[in-house]
Amino acid sequence: MKVVVIGSGIVGASTAYHLARKGIEVVVVDKAHQGQASAAGAGIVCPWITSVEDPDWFSIARNGALYYPQLISALQNDREENLGYSVVGAMAVSKNDEELDAIESRILERKDEIPEVGEVTRLTASEAKQLFPPLSKDLKAVHITGGARVDGRSLRDAMQRAASKHGVTRYSGEAKLVVVEQKVTGVEIDGEVIVADKVIVTAGAWSKELLAPFGVEIPIEPQRGQIIHFQLPNVDTSEWPVILPQNSYYMLAFDDSRVVVGATRENGTGFDYRFTAVGVKDVIEAALELAPDLAESTLHEMRIGFRPMGPDILPLLGTIPDLEGLIISTGLGASGITMGPYVGVLAGEIALENEIEIDLTPYHPLRATQKV
């Protein structure tokens, strides 16, 4: 069996790696667009704190988080060490005790069925600041030990390298689907046709334009995210927990004295790859409100990523009735780091026509445009 994977972000790299480890012949095609979400993402693997109540979202996010230890072990067995992943814990922070009461109650309910949540502890502002020293002295917290963080770029690169060790072939360029009598038979790249049994589209926010010529209209739009990396020279940040305030921003630290704050959620920008004055201002203001002691830090790096946003918060995952041999796997939105590796596994299992452990109906790629 031969499978072509179009796109090599978190989802595509995971798909290729998963299939290659099963002995499948895999070809990956990637255009290397500016603004690939995985390259920009500094990810949080901690769905335990979320206030999202959609059970279909939580099901796949939960499985995504629980898949990480298995993935990390597999990559380490393939001699990949630079993964940017660590279980450092997470803190939901707020000045409001009632907000924290509700968060603590929700987490404790989840812990009853998901022990991976870890220990749950209520912290005073002083105790929270001891765990994350730049944090505002006014922010109290609910702390859990089961939260993790990962550098999306490092993890993607590690999966790509490991997949190559298992025989995956890579092409750089823009792929076009080859369709014969309503069946996808492969892809064309710069005039070269690669024949395949299955084609899996994991092209993120660029999936829509790839599929449109064949009458497949998926409701995916790019959402621009601007993210800033702050450097704290000679400060050991390696064990600082993920910080989750009660808004759309977040803060996390990595091993190299780096604190990451993000990200803006800008709709209607298209693929406009620019740092904007207002975007940078918003991220810096969010950073200093959360952690005033970052004021004297160094602005180390800025990144832009285009999240693939679907019609709702659920991924677009599955086959298309009118195009045999095609699998779509995109639309993870702001949950790409949490869900991405696991969604890649699911896409690979769909290609192999294996039984899937969850009901895929809620994630059907065309659910917003037709009955499924």
How does this structure look, described?
By secondary structure, the chain is of the alpha/beta class. The chain folds into 2 domains: 2-39 and 153-220 and 313-363, 3-Layer(bba) Sandwich (FAD/NAD(P)-binding domain); 88-148 and 221-309, D-Amino Acid Oxidase, Chain A, domain 2. Helices cover 30% and strands 30% of the residues. The chain has 9 helices and 20 strands. It has helices at residues 10-21, 37-40, 55-77, 97-111, 125-131, 152-165, 207-211, 277-290, 336-351, and strands at 2-6, 25-30, 42-45, 85-87, 90-94, 120-123, 140-144, 148-151, 169-172, 175-180, 183-189, 192-195, 198-201, 221-231, 242-244, 250-254, 258-262, 298-309, 316-320, 323-330. A 6-stranded mixed sheet has the order 9-2-1-13-20-19, covered by helices on one side. The model has no long low-confidence stretch (mean pLDDT 95).
